[in-house]
Design goal:
This protein has 243 residues and is an alpha+beta fold. It contains seven helices and 15 strands. The structure holds uracil.
Length: 243
C-alpha cells in the first residue's frame, strides 16, 4: 500500500507539494472517485486519473529500445542528450535505468528496467549473459580472426573471454560479422577488433541474453517487454519474476 501523494510523486506527476495541491483541488480520481485526501492508502496498480486522464500506475517497467546513434547511454548528462529523453518522464521518475551501456555511436538493442537488482545481476561478470552484435569493420576477416576470438583476444588490461565470430561477408575493404561475447567491458567489441588489426566502423546490438531486438522498432522507438520476455530475462538473471 502507498499514500496517494507519494504514489503520484513516484509516477512523476509532480513534487510532493504540487501533487498535494492538486489532490486537495479535486484534480485526482482514485479507483473511480475524486479523492481529496493526500494520505489515502492505495494498492499498487490502483486506477488513477489526473485531471481526467488515466495514469499508467505500474511501478515496475521493463523496456526494449532500438538505440539510435548519437545518444548517450546514461540516466542523465549535463551536456549531451541521453536515451532517457526517448521515454516519457515517468520512466526516469520510476528509476528505470539502462541495463549496461552502448557507446554513443552504437545502435540497437538496449534494455531499460526499474528493477535495480535485475540490472545488477544481468551485468554481473559471474552471470555470463551473451550479447550479440553485428559489426562492420574496415578490412578482410578470415579464419585467423575467428580463431583469435575463439581463443580469447589479449587486450592491454585483460584477456577477453572466448567469443564467437561469424563472418557474414568479407572483402579487402570491408567486412561484416556477427560477434557474441559474454562480457560487457568498456568498448569491448571495438577493442577486440583493434587487437586483431581492424577498426569497427559500425556496431549494432542484435541480442542481449534471451532477448532479440524487435524488428518492428525503428531507431529511437521502444516498447515494453512482453510478460514472456520479462520472464526470460529474470530467468537469465536467476531471479524471481517482478513485473
Ligand atoms: N562494445 C563496444 O565496443 N561498444 C559498444 O557499444 C558495445 C560493445
Amino acid at each position: 500500500m502507498m499514500r496517494l501523494d507519494r504514489y503520484l510523486v513516484t509516477l512523476g506527476v509532480g513534487t510532493r507539494t504540487e501533487v498535494q495541491k492538486l489532490i486537495r483541488a479535486g484534480g485526482v480520481e482514485a479507483e473511480g472517485t475524486v479523492c481529496r485526501d493526500p494520505g489515502q492508502q492505495l494498492r499498487e496498480g490502483a486506477s488513477l486519473r489526473v485531471r481526467g486522464e488515466a495514469l499508467d500506475t505500474r511501478l515496475m517497467r521493463h523496456v526494449m529500445l532500438n538505440k539510435p546513434a548519437g545518444l548517450l547511454t546514461a540516466a542523465r548528462d549535463r551536456k549531451q542528450p541521453t536515451v532517457m529523453g526517448l521515454l516519457p518522464p515517468a520512466y526516469a521518475a520510476l528509476g528505470c535505468m539502462p541495463v549496461g551501456r552502448l557507446d554513443k555511436d552504437t545502435t540497437g538493442l538496449l534494455l531499460l528496467s526499474c528493477d535495480g537488482e535485475l540490472n545488477h545481476r544481468l551485468l554481473s561478470p559471474a552471470r555470463h549473459v551473451d550479447k550479440t552484435y553485428c559489426a562492420v569493420v574496415d578490412g578482410p576477416l578470415t579464419g585467423a580472426e575467428v580463431a583469435a576470438f575463439a581463443t580469447g583476444v589479449a587486450l592491454s588490461d585483460f584477456t577477453a573471454l572466448p567469443a564467437r565470430l561469424e563472418i557474414l561477408s568479407s572483402s579487402a575493404v570491408e567486412s561484416v560479422a556477427r560477434v557474441t561475447v559474454r562480457e560487457g567491458k568498456f568498448h569491448q567489441i571495438k577493442r577486440m577488433f583493434e587487437a586483431v588489426g581492424r577498426q569497427v566502423t559500425a556496431l549494432h546490438r542484435e541480442a542481449f541474453g534471451p532477448l532479440t531486438l524487435d524488428a518492428a522498432l525503428a531507431p529511437g522507438q521502444w516498447r515494453e517487454l512482453t510478460a514472456e520476455e520479462a520472464r526470460a530475462l529474470y530467468e537469465a538473471a536467476q531471479m524471481e519474476v517482478h513485473q
